[in-house]
Specification:
The chain is an alpha/beta fold. It contains six helices and nine strands, in the order βββαββαααβαβαββ. Helices cover 31% and strands 28% of the residues. It binds adenosine-5'-diphosphate and magnesium ion. Adenosine-5'-diphosphate is lined by residues 13, 16, 18, 36, 38-44.
Length: 218
């Protein structure tokens, strides 16, 4: 079953034709890497898929919910760590505060941040902020995670830790992963590697032997 299907997506910024005609699908259970040169429209594609940007034309169809992880974490700076994670479950998914808090604390424990519930994002390192962002994405109980350069703002060692956490949590919970990356080594984790170039899908490579996070050759 396809969890995401994009057909003939187009997006320009004035006379800059960023997404010329993009069609792609993500099957349930897959790890899909989306690669392409800087400026090729990867983030724009993701932003169009998530309503952060309005596509000019084309269709985007989801089956089930998704969570988002960004390069720059995008936590709410004026919310505590706990509130960052509880916010969507309460306001969007209408969970009770008690239920949302219990799940948020459980996820924080899993992320090794059990003691950080009451601090604010600015009091955390980049790696810790990204762990909060992953917990926030997972709190929505998504079928799929869409990640835009999730380790792009982190040093290599922190990036490795984050990628392992992300990969382990998704595997354990059966979450499909779409990861945008310009890092060839990370893209080797994908069951499918989609290359975006000049506004179109330049190639789709099925990878029969995706590497595990421990095998990545950074
Ligand atoms: P990538 O993520 O692959 O590096 P982006 O999707 O961020 O690429 O950007 C693709 C192109 O679109 C770039 O040339 C960028 O400058 C341009 N772009 C992105 N967002 C906007 C915007 N809101 N307004 C105008 N141009 C934009
Ligand atoms: Mg980008």
């Amino acid at each position: 079953m396809k969890l995401l299907e994009i057909e003939n997506l187009k997006k320009s910024f004035e006379d800059l034709d960023v997404l010329h005609d993009i069609s792609l699908g993500v099957e349930e259970g897959e790890v899909v890497a989306i690669i392409g040169p800087s400026g090729s429209g990867k983030s724009t594609l993701l932003r169009c898929c998530t309503g952060l940007e309005q596509a000019d034309s084309g269709t985007i169809h989801y089956e089930g919910s998704y969570g988002l992880v960004f390069q720059n974490f995008n936590l709410f700076p004026h919310y505590s760590v706990l509130k960052n994670i509880m916010d969507a479950p309460i306001s969007v998914q209408k969970q009770s505060k008690k239920e949302a808090e219990k799940e948020a604390r459980r996820l924080l424990e899993k992320m090794g941040l059990g003691d950080k519930a009451d601090v604010y994002p600015c009091q955390l390192s980049g790696g810790q902020q990204q762990r909060v962002a992953i917990a926030r994405a997972l709190a929505k109980n998504p079928k799929m995670l869409l990640c835009d350069e999730p380790t792009g703002a982190l040093d290599i060692n922190t990036g490795k830790t984050i990628l392992k956490l992300l990969s382990d949590m998704c595997k354990k919970n059966g979450i499909t992963v779409v990861v945008i990356t310009h890092n060839q080594a990370i893209s080797a984790m994908g069951d499918k590697v989609i290359k975006i170039k000049n506004g179109i899908v330049d190639s789709v490579v099925i990878n029969d032997n995706p590497v595990s996070v421990d095998e990545i050759d950074w």
